Amino acid sequence: MIRIAHWIGGKEHAGTSGRVGPVFNPATGQQTGEVDLASAAEVADAVAVAKEAGAAWRSASLSKRSAVLFKFRELLAAKSGELAAVITSEHGKVLSDAAGEVARGLENAEFATGIPHLMKGSYSEQASTGVDVYSIRQPLGVVAGITPFNFPAMVPLWMCTTAIASGNAFVLKPSEKDPSAALFLANLWKEAGLPDGVFTVVNGDVEAVNALLTHPDIAAVSFVGSTPVAKYIYETGTANGKRVQALGGAKNHMVVLPDAELDAAADAAVSAAYGSAGERCMAVSIVVAVGEIADPLVDAIAARLPKLKIGAGTDPNAEMGPLISAVHRDKVAGYVAAGAEAGATVVADGREADLPENGYFLGVTLLDNVTPDMAVYTDEVFGPVLGVVRVETYAEALALINDNEYGNGTAIFTRDGGAARQFQFDVNVGMVGVNVPIPVPVAYYSFGGWKASLFGDTHMYGPDGVHFFTRTKVVTSRWPDPGTSSVDLGFPQTR
Ligand code: NAD
């Protein structure tokens, strides 16, 4: 069994709180490790080290910072297979999916190599006679990232690449369910030449989170996780004077119009609903079938399900792995039961699938005739369960989405450009796909939902990420000719 420690001052740091949490391999159900759970005092020690390191890192030239990011990016690319294996061993997702997660995180490192350009301010010459005005971007100091289990490498990479490139010290509190990927990243940062203390990992649970949220030297908190916790993080962090962006859960609808290409829509629905066993915040959990496409669409989705291969993430033939824990698997199975009881038509029942004996596996479920009052519709299920809601019109489909409490991602499948454009205009969701089921923005845009999917006003990574991890200072400057100044009590005018 491995012991997963903290990472403080550029090296592993064994916990002293006396509290540890178990880490499992979801494909076998075996406990594989123990992770240290930090006390508030340990968090404070880690933040003190980060503060000192951050003060020096802030002074490092933009080219030096960019060089570290380039090196980090190269190391991440070279070791992506190793990192994917670490992810699979604790999260359970299949290796190809874990490699995909690393590839998307790598894009954030690539974006952050451009930090000299991204940190540029603006300059106005002669704003008043002999007076120039310019803006500069500066880092915040020590910033924290608190991340979920479902992307143990990508979500930390969303945050730490931009935060560090812009001159901050970054303290990561990863999910206690799969913490090893964070330590892997810590080693890469060190190898890339990042000064000790600029990247820190404090493992832990609520106690560590609360210590970060209330620590006076943490300037900002970037959070990704479930909506109730996101709301708590936002409220507590801002009440303690911090800048906070807190991304929450989701209920992503995929609208299929009657003119959609049937096979493409069915392929997309299956990939987006069951990939990573549905444990993605951008997973499609509801298909909204408009009009007469419903019957052929349900048939086409159902026809694809028996071919899906479920197995351990390390099995090269497996397309879908286990869920994160036994508790979560049982909760998801409970939603299937509740849906059936509430009157949904069970087209495929994941509870009856032929599955590996051990581990937290659940087969794929397809529920037809789901209605908005059912728990399987109202709640984020976060498992391999796809519901189909049948409506007659585009307007009904749109109303369903706009009435939903979440607004993370959505997609429309159609051959009609005008309908797609109208949808893009109408829909109250932060990320929209047109014939693309999981519209996760590329790294040079920003990621974020609306409504209960995000608390705060900046999205994650990309230009918004730079904005979040920096603050602007505006300098008004005059270099008068010697001997030309005089006392003037009037308010400054731009003449
Ligand atoms: P979670 O909210 O349970 O945990 C997220 C983090 O918060 C972890 O580090 C955890 O230790 C900490 N935490 C948990 N409970 C806490 C509490 N009561 N007080 C303080 N901290 C607490 O989420 P999860 O189960 O790890 O991840 C799945 C959730 O994350 C889903 O809801 C999913 O939609 C969401 N998610 C959202 C996005 C997005 O971009 N919007 C991306 C990935 C995941």
- The CATH class of the largest domain is identified as Alpha Beta
**Terminal-residue CA separation:** 72 Å
- Could you tell me the mean pLDDT? 97
Q: What is the assigned CATH homologous superfamily of the largest domain? A: Aldehyde Dehydrogenase, Chain A, domain 1
As a percent range, the share of strand residues is: 15-25%
- Per the principal axes of the C-alpha atoms, what is the gross shape? globular
- Uncertain residue segments: none
CATH architecture of the largest domain: 3-Layer(aba) Sandwich
Going across the biggest sheet, name each strand in turn. 15-16-17-14-13-19-20
Portion of residues within helices: 25-40%
- Per the CATH scheme, the topology name of the largest domain is Aldehyde Dehydrogenase, Chain A, domain 1
Descriptive tags:
23% strand; 2 domains; single chain; Aldehyde Dehydrogenase, Chain A, domain 2; seven-stranded mixed beta sheet; alpha/beta; six-stranded mixed beta sheet; Aldehyde Dehydrogenase, Chain A, domain 1
Summarize the structure.
This protein has 495 residues and is an alpha/beta fold.
3D structure, described in words:
Pfam families: Aldedh. Residues 21-475 form the Aldehyde dehydrogenase domain. Its EC number is 1.2.1.27. The protein is of the alpha/beta class and 495 residues long. The protein has two domains: 2-248 and 453-475, Aldehyde Dehydrogenase, Chain A, domain 1 (3-Layer(aba) Sandwich); 252-434, Aldehyde Dehydrogenase, Chain A, domain 2 (3-Layer(aba) Sandwich). The protein contains 16 helices and 23 strands. The chain has a seven-stranded mixed sheet, with helices on both faces. Strands 10-9-8-11-12-22 form a six-stranded mixed sheet, with helices on both faces. The protein has a three-stranded mixed sheet with strand order 1-5-4, covered by helices on one side. Helix 3 packs antiparallel against helix 7 (180-191). The longest helix has 19 residues, at 95-113. The radius of gyration is 25 Å and the shape is globular. The mean pLDDT is 97. Bound molecules: nicotinamide-adenine-dinucleotide. Nicotinamide-adenine-dinucleotide (NAD) binds at residues 146-151, 155, 173, 175-176, 205-206, 209, 224-226, 229, 232, 247-250, 281, 380, 382, 408, 449, 453.
